[in-house]
Amino acid sequence: MENLEKQLICPICLEMFTKPVVILPCQHNLCRKCANDVFQAANPYLPTRSGSLTSGGRFRCPSCRHEVVLDRHGVYGLQRNLLVENIIDMFKQESSSSSRPTSESKEEMPMCDVHKEEKINIYCVTHGVPTCSMCKVFGAHKDCEVSPLSSISQEKRTELSDGIAMMVGNNDRIQGIISQLQEACHVIEENGRRQKTKLCERFDQLYSMLEEKKREMSQKVTAKQEEKVNYIQSLTRKYRDHLEESCKIVERGIQTMEETGMAVFVKNAKDLLKKIEDASSTAHLDKVERGYEKMDHYKVDFRRERKALSSIDFIRDDDDKDEEEVDAEVGEGAQTVSGGTAVSETPGQPNAPQQITSSLSPTRSSAST
């Protein structure tokens, strides 16, 4: 019967189960009232109705720590253990039919260490130890305050029961705090991933702007390069044609020198001398000025931009609006090149040197370089 009574003790209130008894998914049993108390301690912020929880939630079994998930009915959705309730009724009937003195007489009482034949039946309040009646009358505790062992046992049992109940409640509250901390860790990790994604998107936008600016400025250099190369090639063809014509005149002059007839020679020489005079002049051909082949006037100065990039850091919440306004301004001016005004060239003439910087550098006139 004692072993059976131990199996019928609720792990929360440490008393015999009070009906109704509910069975958890882990097959452990609890009083419904105790289950409701544990659930409220684990979920202090869930709404209640008439002192009991009515919405879904979760708590842990006090015996095995298995997590119990409840539906919208709360603890009232747990199944009643009718078998345990019937066993409790049978145990109470059997206990009431048996006499208590008989059960007490069967209880083994420890013997006093001083008086070997005396049972320990009193409690010395002064020294805080159980002892026997002979120690109180003749022994070391004759001047001490004593109390019946049964009353002290009941008092200590009550204190221990209250302490255990308090520890169970504290453990459930601590477990709730641990669950909240774990959830906070998950939220922090998710927020960190989200912010890193946004950060990468912002840097990708910056990379795209730099690539677009690089492409735009490279096209300008390429266009000027092609313009100069085409002009030089055109001028080369003109000089080559002039050279071919001069060679033909030289060959004709050599042939004229071989003429033996004086009349024919004089006639041909007169025309030939006129052509030699015209071919010796290159005034009609353009000349390339010094430095025309240079392209180093297309240069950039990224010192301020490098300093600005090295100072990139996270902003405060009150700076979000300012950042949005800057992004809008940058988007409107994405197709322009500030910091240097392009100087157009007259075909065939070298252009004046110019400075081209990124959109973040101050504007400089072409004469500054």
User: What is the strand tally?
Assistant: 10
Percent helix, as a range, is 40-55%
Runs in which pLDDT lies below 50 for 5 or more consecutive residues are 49-54, 101-106, 333-369
Distance linking N and C termini: 107 Å
Strand ordering within the main sheet: 2-1-7
Gross morphology: rod-shaped
Mean pLDDT rating = 76
Series of H and E elements: HEEHEEEEEHHEEHEHHHH
From the alpha-carbon coordinates, what is the Rg to the nearest angstrom? Answer: 53 Å
Q: What fraction of residues sit in β-strands?
A: 5-15%
Q: Biggest β-sheet: count, sense, barrel?
A: 3 strands, antiparallel
By secondary-structure content and strand pairing, the structural class works out as: mainly alpha
How many DSSP helices?
9
Domain B box-type: 107-149
Region (Disordered): 315-369
Catalytic activity: S-ubiquitinyl-[E2 ubiquitin-conjugating enzyme]-L-cysteine + [acceptor protein]-L-lysine = [E2 ubiquitin-conjugating enzyme]-L-cysteine + N(6)-ubiquitinyl-[acceptor protein]-L-lysine
Domain COS: 257-315
